[in-house]
Amino acid sequence: MRVFRKNFIMSLIENILILLVVTFVFYSSQSLSTQKTIYVPQGSITNIISQLHKKGYEVSIIDRYILSFLGQPQSGWVDIGSTRLNRIDFLYKLATAKAKMEEITLIPGETTVLFFEDIAATLELNASKLQQFYNQDADYPEAGIYADTYYVPFGINEEQLVTFLLKESTKQFQKISHKIYGTYDKKQWLRLLTVASIIQKEAANVEEMPLVSSVIYNRLKKGMPLQMDGTLNYGKYSHIKVTPDRIRNDKSRFNTYKYKGLPPSPIGAVSFDAIIAAIKPAQTDYLYFMKNKQGTHDFTKSYQTHRRNILKAR
């Protein structure tokens, strides 16, 4: 009787194991629809499976255990490579695929409107939506995104991209400000970014930036209008040559030929060098500068010398 019971139990266990194996093989061989690139949320494997299920993927608690065995997926947009896989292949791809990244660069001096047009074409996004989310969330009308190279997940949408760029830029601004001032004040930083953006547009190179900065502050101190072409290269006019006609007809506060003081806000993205130049201008008495035939600028405190420099350049 004991032998019979033992054999029965062994046979039952064996049949259960066979049934489990057959069930697992059948379950894991089922095909699963997916996109070639999918977004893997941050968090535990339980959270990942839950979020995928909410997005319409046919995954279950069993997949959580299988995925736990295969490894922790990398968060972000990952390249699965196919739209139809069996369950095991899908979970293996999920566990081993690397995040697909795109490189985007904001050139110092560029305006957001042209930057968004460029990256919209590259990342297949909507430039108007990018600008809309920027206007909604940015601390500054312009220059809220630090001029730098960024690596962003493939498939990121407009809101996610702008949020990421603004977050990373604010970190940079806060880091610089805290190091120099010990605090980060948005009102103070707006003025600083405005000066830095003019320096960025006007200076021929990094070495000239503190000199251009000194001219800006010297003219402001004396109550002189800045009279700088770069301030008219705002928004969609970023790369438009400033002509006498434009100077006469532009009625905006960015026209520093018509209005004294700084423009109401920055005119483009700024680099670290331009920010430092705005914070630490060279100690000079320069009031004028003129581009020479070498492509750099001649600086002077004398209007008569400045006029000679103009004639020499012509």
TrEMBL record:
Pfam families: YceG (PF02618)
Record keyword Transmembrane helix present: yes
Keyword line: Cell membrane, Cell wall biogenesis/degradation, Lyase, Membrane, Transmembrane, Transmembrane helix
Catalysed reaction equations from the record: a peptidoglycan chain = a peptidoglycan chain with N-acetyl-1,6-anhydromuramyl-[peptide] at the reducing end + a peptidoglycan chain with N-acetylglucosamine at the non-reducing end
Coiled coil region boundaries: none
Residues carrying the site annotation Important for catalytic activity: E202
Record EC number: 4.2.2.29
Family affiliation: Belongs to the transglycosylase MltG family.
Biological role stated in the UniProt entry: Functions as a peptidoglycan terminase that cleaves nascent peptidoglycan strands endolytically to terminate their elongation.
Protein name stated in the entry: Endolytic murein transglycosylase
